[in-house]
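Late entry, evening session. Most of the bench is empty. Finally got around to the prediction I had been postponing all week. Sequence below, unchanged from the version circulated by S.P.
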Amino acid sequence: MWEAIVDRETGFRLFSREVLEKIRETRVLVVGCGGNGTVADLLLRAGFTRFGLIDDDVVEDTNLNRLPFTRSAVGRPKTEAWRDYLLSVNPEAEISAWRMTINRFDGPRFSDILAGRGWEHGSDPVDLVFLGTTDVEANLVAARCCAAAHVRMIIGPASSGGWIVGTFVHGEGDVTVEELAGFGTEGTRLEDIDYNALRPLYARALNYPGRAERLAPGVGPAMLRGELAARSCGIFTRMTNAAMAFEAVKNVADMHGLPLDGTSLVRLPEVQIFDPYSGCSYYYDIRRKAVGIPSRPGGTIRWEPWNDGRNTQNVAGSACR
């Protein structure tokens, strides 16, 4: 079945036989099986076969705008629904699932999963993690464990209103979530962190140029206060999932020293953005608060400061010219 799935990918740059074979061997862990969890579908159809799934929620009616299920899945645990769905596409896939939350006390358990302990098919460590939960506590715990284990972590906020993606490579000297968001928690035990106090900092770190304009007035603050669930329009979620899936292919090539063939990793603190409202494509350096505007496809990138959103429209206009 795997050969049939990847057959028509061959011929595209980057999707060489060597890269596809490494994709087949790569073990991925999807943390959060809601909007961002849909990346599992795209990964499977790109040739990935080894999956771990973590989520404690059940499928709801409101999930059907973005999850590839029918009403028959409503009420089922998301991890079970995803396992059945993925196996229905490729029965040869290896799926391990944990119906669990991730809280401040779950660091050791999550680290065990990263190390390959408790999986149904072998004990190889995880190669790539996809962070797809909106819970700050779960995000920080997973991110710290990934950084400690030097496991690459791909992010793409599903509520972003467009294509946004980046990789925490977690190599020597690479940035971590805690450092990038300015949490100041690096020396604090996970059990002792005030996670509620981190919500505004986390939201600010992900507030790339143009994002605020994607939401109707009042929606962003309501989500930050917990009065409104994160927005996940299926169209935008699929764009972000596509971004993460393609970034995963690039990471596989990079991890094995294979040619990236005309592309490159989007390495945090930089993220890549495509705004479907305006058609603008650009980069954002979260640490430097600078916007990178490509001069043309495959050309150089011109960096401009982003003054807390005051020049957002100018940046968008420059990116589209």
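Two things to note before I forget:
The domain at 2-268 is CATH 3.40.50.720 (Rossmann fold).
The mean pLDDT is 91.
Will write this up properly tomorrow.
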